[in-house]
Amino acid sequence: MIRFIAADLRRLWAGSLVVVLLIALAIALGVAVVLQERALRLGSARAADRFDLVIGAGGSETQLVLSSVFLQPSPLPLMPGRILSKLTADPRVAWVSPIGFGDSFSGYPIAGTSLALPDNLSGGFSEGRGLAAENEAVVGAAVSLPLGFEIKPMHGSVEIGGHTHTEIAYRVTGRMKPTGTAWDRAILVPIQAVWHIHGLESGDSADEDHDHADDHALDDRWSGDLPGLPAVLVKPKSIADAYKLRQDYRSGNTVAVFPGEVLTNLYATLGDAKRILVAVASGAQGLVAASLILVTVIHIGQRRRQIGALRAFGAPRLAILGIVWGEFFALIALGIAGGFALGYCAASLLSGFFSASSGIVMPVGFVRADLILAGLLIAFGAVLAALPAILAYRQSPAEALRA
Fold it and tell me: Which of 73, 132, 230, 375 has minimal CB crowding within 10 Å?
């Protein structure tokens, strides 16, 4: 029976290929949506895990997280620099790092930060060393710039008509280990350099000679009259301290957020979009199923003489039932397998594209729920394949030969 089915499929290879592709494309759409949405959730959640608490000026919590954690360019309001001094002296804080945005180089965002952040963020350097002077820079693992490369920062970006700063040129001194976050595509420089080239000197440094940036003494002992800041990354000493700090800085002109909580709200919106896309995919799969039913009915009508001849030569009804069911189930099973493969490839390509542009690693993979879905689709395919088999089973050989 299996040889007969294989021979029949080879004889009707063109039509069989169309049916398999039709099923595969319909399944692939739904699989790609599910896998890509899951990869985005996992990738963004893992990226946010490295940041415990973010404090910024009053405004949008979502934009604060997108700018400070995911380095999405957007103008943020500035909070007073005394907040950084206060956090530095707070016994509940393990370490604190200011963040300054606005510049870029060759498509990579430049973030002004503390001397300790590169090591705290990535756990060390894959090559080179950390920051020691204002004219030095540390690059993320995905930044394709060699050690010793000279960086001339651009205010803004080429797309929005930025201009190149002439006050300073950074020299790459180190490369961070991979973090799986957007910071893998970032260039980190001392926040003091960002303040100086943008005319935001603190009171303690206003009288310094900024033409000798490499001579400036740098440290992370933030005190005195500091310039305004768009965001501050905070590492609390304990979970209890994290909640207390968030409560303390959620009043007045500042806002403190856990990035994970903000992402939860974004996931809710993403979930709505996912449901819409899954509904569209389910509709496409329903249309394919309806088309297959129509095709199978027409196909059985065209093969009435063949079925009648098999019955006339002594083939039992159950054998005819098995042959017809086996042929259509084989096509459906191949289409489902191909759909999962195509969906995985599509999601992997999209995740690779997003990872290359954002620096966030987005893992694509199947889970138990996907295997259950595949089993349900196979079961539905088995039921669907039974329709033409039953039609063939009920045909009279005499009527089939007269057709």
Answer: 375
> pLDDT digit string (tens) for 189-223?
999 988 888 777 654 444 444 444 444 557 778 87
CA dist 80 and 62 (Å) reads: 20
> Cα separation of 267 and 269, whole Å?
5
Beta-bridge partners for 254: 57
| Helices then strands, each counted (H, E), the chain | 12, 12
Q: Which of 348, 335, 346 is nearest to 374 (CA)?
A: 335
Dihedral, CA atoms, 99, 105, 109, 115, nearest 10 degrees?
Answer: -40
**For residues 389 and 400, which has the higher predicted lDDT (pLDDT)?**
389
What are 313-337's pLDDT values in tens digits?
A: 555 666 666 777 777 888 888 889 9
Q: How far apart are CA 210 and CA 166, in angstroms?
A: 12
* CA atoms of 220 and 232, how far apart (whole Å): 13
* Torsion angle defined by CA atoms of residues 222, 228, 233 and 235, in that order, rounded to the nearest 10 degrees: 40
Rounded Cα–Cα distance for residues 116 and 255 (Å): 23
Cα dihedral sign for 291, 292, 294, 295?
A: positive
Considering only CA atoms, which of 177, 182, 196, 194 is closest in space to residue 118?
177
What's the pTM value of the predicted model, to 2 decimals? 0.74
Question: What is the Cα–Cα distance from 183 to 49, expressed in whole angstroms?
Answer: 13
CA–CA separation, 305 and 223 (whole Å): 93
Q: Provide CB contacts within 8 A for 275, sequence distance 6+.
A: none
DSSP one-letter string for 152-179? --EES-TTTT-EE--S--EEEEEEEPP-
Q: What is the largest CA-CA distance in the chain?
A: 107
Strands 108-113 and 187-190, bridge-based pairing: parallel
Q: Which long-range contacts (CB under 8 A, 24 or more apart) does 345-349 make?
A: 346/28, 346/32, 346/36, 347/31, 347/32, 347/35, 347/36, 347/39
- For the stretch 217-231, pLDDT in tens is 577 788 777 888 999
Helices 259-302 and 13-48, axial angle in degrees (round to 10) = 170
Residue 205: both structure tokens together: 């440094």
